[in-house]
UniProtKB/TrEMBL annotation:
Natural source organism: Methanolobus chelungpuianus
Top-level division of the source organism's lineage: Archaea
Swiss-Prot/TrEMBL catalytic activity: Co(I)-[methylamine-specific corrinoid protein] + methylamine + H(+) = methyl-Co(III)-[methylamine-specific corrinoid protein] + NH4(+)
Keyword Transferase part of the UniProt annotation: yes
Membrane-crossing segments per the record: none
Pfam families: MtmB
Family in the record: Belongs to the monomethylamine methyltransferase family.
Full protein name: [methylamine--corrinoid protein] Co-methyltransferase
EC number per UniProt: 2.1.1.248
Length: 457
């Protein structure tokens, strides 16, 4: 807690700054550092293969965090992060086990082109989910053997009524959601499967309400969300609570390309690294989850996002010991070929660039209810497994081919179908994808498999 106390004091006694001034400082400094370190995006690549470029991006990320600091929205002050604290944190290794009983998983420390695949966490990971399909969507992911944990979505109703944020009704909804997540693991015969989240809460009380041995235990990474190089008292309070109780927790951030802080792919890659360092040094989280999206499409599968995220992943996996995850916010809805293509493009890059955990995917940018399914998570896991055989250059060529299948649809993606329209639901014990959905999954799988080097069609 020593560093936490030091940085809390900095949040109270630090330099005054407005949030707008902080955003501008992050923007300007990241662009200056890109020029200083020679970080340049060619506009064509998807998976960088220049390891010196990755190392330069890591150095730039350290300098950005140390120079600009972290803005505390609760006090209007800047938390200055000591460079010595950053450097001391790089080689600290805390082994990570998630889940319980026979579903316990040891998360591997991955590196570029590692032969061990990333851990697959299925579910809508914060996307909108209807009350009536909440249990079934989680269960569909539990039933997929490749899935090693569940990251559930945000339940939008309770007893048929929309939940007013920050109301007592939210607490009841959060309890129902968490109990349904755990129930899904029991019905699916995988009790002890790791839960990640919860995603329904909007206030700390709701998050901490379900932090218990029954629901979100110390083996179930709990969510602590942060903005772009920013924090607040609520976030820091949750971090202190989880540290004191020995809980694993994931610090999630979703930087927006084209937002107030990020104007280029190069800047995004540097900020992605700096945010990862922030999570380890300031938040002390077990896992950092990154899910950058494009302002124009709201998706994580745009070309600039893919390149920047992959470069940041290379930089991090080569230069520090820390577990990283990535959120998949797809533009298309589920039960479309574009949804599968978007997932494949991301999973290939993340796997070869050393990401440890893949989250999701969720369709329709997470904003339309019920655009998540276990079949999508299965596909993500299978593609990741196959990608362990690729070099960086081979991955880049394959992602380029896949990206060409959906590039012109990013601003007007297919709506797809909601979960209940592409799964046959007779009961919680009789649940499976429709034949049409399975046929589409097989078609796209065989198409992509045919492009893997050395693999038969």
């Amino acid at each position: 807690m020593q560093n936490m106390y030091k940085y809390l004091k900095s949040a109270i006694e630090g330099v005054n700054r407005t949030e707008k001034q902080h955003d501008l400082a992050v923007f300007k400094t990241s662009e200056e550092l890109a020029a200083k370190y020679g970080i340049k995006y060619d506009g064509k690549s998807f998976v960088p293969d220049d390891l010196e470029l990755a190392d330069a991006t890591f150095e730039a990320g350290i300098e950005l965090l140390h120079t600009v600091g972290v803005y505390c929205k609760s006090t209007g002050k800047v938390i200055q992060i000591d460079e010595e604290d950053i450097l001391k944190s790089l080689n600290i290794t805390n082994p990570l086990e998630i889940g319980r009983l026979k579903e316990k998983v040891t998360v591997p420390h991955r590196y570029p082109m590692a032969s061990i695949p990333p851990v697959i966490i299925g579910g809508p990971m914060g996307g909108s989910v209807s009350e009536e399909n909440f249990l079934y969507i989680n269960l569909s992911a539990v039933l997929e053997n490749v899935v090693q944990g569940i990251y559930s979505g945000a339940m939008k109703q309770f007893c048929g009524e929309y939940i007013k944020p920050k109301s007592p009704l939210e607490l009841l909804a959060v309890l129902k959601a968490a109990r349904n997540e755990r129930l899904a693991t029991k019905i699916g015969g995988r009790e002890g499967l790791a839960l990640m989240g919860p995603s329904t809460p909007t206030i700390p009380t709701s998050y901490l309400l379900v932090s218990s041995d029954e629901l979100y235990s110390c083996a179930d990474p709990q969510e602590v969300y942060m903005d772009d190089l920013k924090t607040d008292y609520e976030t820091l309070s949750k971090c202190i609570y989880h540290q004191e109780h020995g809980n694993h927790y994931i610090s999630g951030q979703v930087p927006v390309f084209g937002g107030p802080c990020i104007g280029s792919a190069e800047g995004l890659a540097i900020i992605d690294v700096a945010e990862t360092l922030q999570s380890k040094v300031l938040a002390h989280s077990s896992i950092h989850g990154s899910g950058a999206v494009h302002a124009e499409t709201g998706s994580s599968s745009a070309k600039e996002i893919l390149w920047a995220s992959n470069l940041a992943s290379l930089a991090i996996s080569r230069n520090m010991n820390y577990y990283t995850a990535r959120y998949y916010w797809n533009a298309a809805g589920i039960c479309t070929d574009m949804m599968f293509y978007e997932t494949a493009a991301q999973a290939i890059g993340d796997t070869v660039c050393g990401r440890d955990i893949l989250l999701g995917p969720v369709g329709a940018r997470g904003g339309v209810p019920d655009h998540s399914s276990g079949l999508e998570s299965r596909f993500m896991g299978e593609i990741a497994q196959m990608a362990t055989h690729l070099s960086l250059a081979e991955a880049n060529r394959l992602v380029a081919k896949i990206y060409s299948r959906y590039e012109d649809k990013l601003t007007n993606p297919p709506a797809g179908r909601t979960f209940d329209k592409c799964y046959r639901i007779k009961s919680e014990y009789d649940l499976e994808p429709t034949e049409e959905y399975n046929a589409l999954y097989r078609k796209v799988s065989y198409e992509i498999l045919g492009h893997f080097p050395g693999e038969p069609v």
